[in-house]
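Protocol step 4 of 6: structure prediction from sequence.
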Amino acid sequence: MRRSFLVITSLIIIASFGFGETVMSVIGSSTPNGELYAAVQINLENTGNVGGFQFNLKDIPNELSVASVSPAGRAVAEPYDDTGGAGGIGAGNGMYDFGEPYTDTNGNGSYDPALSFNFNDRDTTVSILAYSPSATPIFPGYGPICTIIFSVPTTVSDEIIDLKFHEILNADPSFPLVVSDPDGDALNTTWLNGLLTVGGIEVRLTGGGGTPGFLSAPLVIEMNNAVPVKGLQFNLVDDVDYLTIDVASVQQVGRAANFTFVGNEVNGQSLILGVNFNGEEIAPGSGAILEVQFMIASNAPMNDLSLSITDLIVATQGGLPLPSNGTDYVFSLTTGVDEEAELPTAFELKQNYPNPFNPTTTISYSVPVASEIQVGIFNLLGQEIRSLSNGEHQPGVYSAMWDGLNQNGVRVESGIYLYRMSSSAGFSATKKLVMLK
């Protein structure tokens, strides 16, 4: 943090400690990439009266500076009528004057001004001192008492910044962590650190598509997150409601392997909820976290459907929702049976298009008789890395899309791969494709 020159006088520490429960904590916060400022609130939980406090807050890595510190919640001034009321006392002077009407929010029978804050923005930390100029305590309760506005350099993006309480004992004067009662006695206090997230969470869709009247190919949900994610939920909405989620197909992949995802159809929308019941997180990174399939209505038209992510909520530590966005997607239904075309007379596996490709390619194939069909992607060792289609096919022309992900939702390396079609009727064929990055 950059240096400022505000002189801070430390609280006087009395060597006796209270035994009430007092907790000072950083409320986790987030700001989108490109924002110049980020607001972080400090929360106080106290069972006894608090007369003042001081603390140091370190940002790790050291990239932020402090623009301002101000009272919040229970530490702000009680509302008052600056018009002066019937007597016109001090009307419009921007401050409370004795006798002006006010709202006694804490019920102590007197007007209480805001807590006074002083801060010193040191090289690697900010030191903050707060006290009541009227000697009115912060009464027992729970809620924010302070807002810190950090300046965020434009070079900081998609990053997690740890905000940690710590003591500075080698300064003159020393600056330990202290919450005191109105008599100046230090209270036994628990200090809980928090996070500032710079950058939002992006959720996007790949894959999917299929044939009316059949189960779709897996739709892959990818997430780009710079911070650990505790849980998420969202709706998948198609424009005319031709898609119904197959509840049994909801499958976690990749970084979300330890999560439990459930899906349900609610009012024509596919609701998906994901959480880990042991408190584990989806680690920061990008790539697939989930696959789902849909039953495609038999009356669905042979064209593209618009699929949208709505009501997206992504939560981090403490259940704090993070800025997030879900991208719209085209769910292709042009890959099923063309009822107006002549039925094929022979099995055929066509060359993928485009080839080479990035990020997706389409593989078309023909089925002349009803049979079980398997279409998969293999590496050059003959190991299957992704199944694209597996099930009963009626006569027709089909296609499947590959998005370059393996069965675990991880994007494969660029290079040459094989794709193979086999049928219960005895047909099999293999071709090469090239993925570029």
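Step 5 (inspection) to follow. Residues 201-332 form a domain with the Immunoglobulin-like fold (CATH 2.60.40.680).
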